[in-house]
Amino acid sequence: MAENGNPDRAPAGAAAPGRPGARRTAPPAYMDSYKEAFVEETAAFVHSYDLAHVTMLGERGILPAETALGVLAGLADMQARGLADCRRAAGGGNHAGEKYLTQALGSEIGGAIGLARSSGDLSAISFRMYARDRVLSLRGGLLSLRGALADFARRHAETVLPGNTHGQHAQPVTAALWAMMLHDALARDGARLAALGTRLNLSPAGAGIMSGTEFPIDRRRIADLLGFDAVVPNTLDAALSHDLEIEFASVLNLLCHTLSRMAEDLFLWTTTEYALIALPDWFIGISSMMPQKRNPDGLQDLRNLSAQSQAVLTMVTGTERGPTGFPIIERRNSDRMLRALAAGIGERLEVLPDLLAEMAVDGARAEDLANAGWASVTDLAGALVRINRIEWRRAHNLVAGFVRDCIARGIGPVEVTAEDFNAYASRSGAQMVTMDDATLTKALDARAFVRRRETFGGPGPGAMEQAIRNAGARMREEEAAIAALRAQFAAAEALLQETVQRTLAAGRFA
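Predicted structure:
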C-alpha cells in the first residue's frame, strides 16, 4: 500500500505503472520545437533593438556609462564578426545578444543588456519590425505584378474573350478588362497591407512583459532609433495583444485568394477544351508517362496558396484565443507558419510578371468562342428598344424566345438573319417589332459589343485607355509611398549605427 493509504497511487520516485525504469528527468524531445531558435528573418531586427535599448540606457544614465559602452562595443564586435554567425553560435533566439556578450565578455557586461526589458519586448518588437519590412516587400511585389497586368492590358486591349457566369458564356469582355480587374483587386490587397503597416509601425519597446519598468526609460527614443512613427501607448496592450498577427494572416489570406482566382482563370483557359492560352515551358510540368502532356504545375501551385493561407489564418486565430497572456508557447508554431506563408507569397510575386509577359493568348480562338454562344444578344434587345420604342422587359423576353427558337432549329448567331428574327416576332404576336440585317449583325458581333462599352470602367478602347492611365498614376503614388517608408527605415538604421559609432569613439554618451 502506498504511503498515503491509496493502493492505486505509486510511491514518490517510483516508475509509472506499466512503464519500467526511472522517471523522466528531462523534457521530451518534441518540446525543443517550442524553444527559441535562431530566426534568420528577425535576427537583424533584434540586434538593432539591442543597440537602441543600450544606447537609451546609457544616454539616460540608467546603466553606468562604462558598462553601457562595454555592451555597445560587444554588440559592434558581433556585427564585425558576422551578426548571424555570432547569434547562431550563441544558441539563437531573441536573447542571443545577451548570451554572446556573456560568453565573450562576462556576465557583468552580458547581463546588463536585459535591464528594463523582457522577452515580451523582444518578441513584440521583432515581430513588428519583421512584419513591417515584409509588408513593404510584398507591397513592392504587388506593384510589380500590377504593372505587368497593366502592360498585359495594353497589349490585349482588342483581344475579345467570352465572359463567364455560372460556368456559362455570359457577355463578351476583353483580356484587358480581365487584367485590369485583377489589377484593381490587387490594389485593394496592397491598400490593406499599407493600412496594416501603419498599425505595425508603433514601437512596443519598454512595455516589459506587461507593466513597463520602474526605471526611467525613454520609450520614444528607442522608437525614433528604430524608425517607428510612435509608441504603443498602453504597456499591457504593447506586450500581450496579438491582433496584428491575426490581421497579418487575414490580409495575406485575402491576397492569396486574389492570386488564386487569377490562377483559376488561367488554369481553365489552358485546358485542352478552352485552349485560349499557352504557358511558357518553365511554368509547366511533363508527365512521366505521357510525353505530350503540358501540366500547368505553376498554376496549380498558385491555386493552392489560398488553401495554405486559410490554414495559416485558422492556426493564428486559434493560437491567439483565450485570456490575455495565456497563449505564449503555442505562438512559436503559428509564427513559423505565418512567416513561411509571407515568404512563399513573395517568391511567387517575383515570378508572375514574367508569366504574364511570356504567356501566349490565342486571340482568334477567343473571339470565335465569344461569338459562338449568343453572348451579345443583350445588345439585340437594346436595339429593339431603340428602333421599335418598346419597353426593355418586352424586348428581353422576345430575344430570349428568339434565341431558344434558333437553338432548337440549329441556327447559330453567325448564320442568323433579320428575316429569321422578324418571322419569329410575327409568330410570337409581335408583328410590329422588326429588325434589319445591318443592325442585327452589329448587335451580335462580340468585337463590336465590347467597343460599344465606353462607360467608365468598361472594356471599350477609350475607357480602357483611361483605366490604364489612372492605374499608372496610382502605381506611381504607391511607389513613392513605399520608397518614403524604405527611406524612413534606412535613415533610422543609419542614425542608430552613427550614434553607436560616435558614442564608442567619444567614450561617452551625449
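Summary: The first helix runs from residue 40 to 59.
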